């Protein structure tokens, strides 16, 4: 067994367990698994690390009669970067819910991030609007939220791309493993909810450039990191 590879995997496992940035911690864990898989190393035997196949499950958040305006932006972020699927269920009569599908730890992280981003986006928008009142409220608000979404997605994508580049020759193996995990997640979604019909929301042709730009900057400033003394991520908006 290659000692250098063993040490590299151990360092990645340590980084995954102690990294204050939730997204980077997830990527470190996936990198460790990819390297171990590539070199036929039993990761479960390293530092008593327990590796087992978790079952997929589902949990939900109650919204009441209406879903938050920002929910579609947040669920897109969660599906892109945090290994869950999100399905809106219910009606105004029975009550709206957001169901999260994934592994238990991923769902807990996703639900926590959802609450943080819901509060952060609405609070940041209100602060911007108080300082920049608009006659076209809906256009300005949608533009701001879209900018916020794109700013945060861009930041998370750069972190992901850098982590993949650091894998070097193992990057293709990592990509295959991510594809396998995504297939398992989608399969779990189908088993729980059957065939899902997605209704595309028509994009608005009008955009408030100033609101979008400010939203983009605020989205870029968000840090999703673990809170002090907690395994859950805390959101910071600088």
Care to describe what's here?
By secondary structure, the protein is of the alpha+beta class. The chain folds into two domains: 1-52, no CATH class; 54-237, no CATH class. The chain contains seven helices and five strands. The strands form two sheets. A three-stranded antiparallel beta sheet has the order 1-3-2. A two-stranded antiparallel sheet has the order 4-5. Helix 2 (22-38) crosses helix 6 (171-193), helix 3 (71-81) runs parallel beside helix 5 (137-166) and helix 4 crosses helix 7 (209-220). The radius of gyration is 20 Å and the shape is globular. Residues 226-235 have low confidence and may be disordered.
- Which bin fits the share of residues in helices? 55-70%
Annotation, overall tally of beta strands: 5
What is the structural class?
alpha+beta
Give me the strand/helix succession: HHEHEEHHHHEE
Spell out the blueprint of helices and strands.
Layout: H1 3-18, H2 22-38, E1 56-64, H3 71-81, E2 85-91, E3 95-103, H4 104-131, H5 137-166, H6 171-193, H7 209-220, E4 222-226, E5 233-237
Antiparallel strand pairs: 1-3, 2-3, 4-5
Helix pairs in contact: 1-2, 2-5, 2-6, 3-4, 3-5, 4-7, 5-7
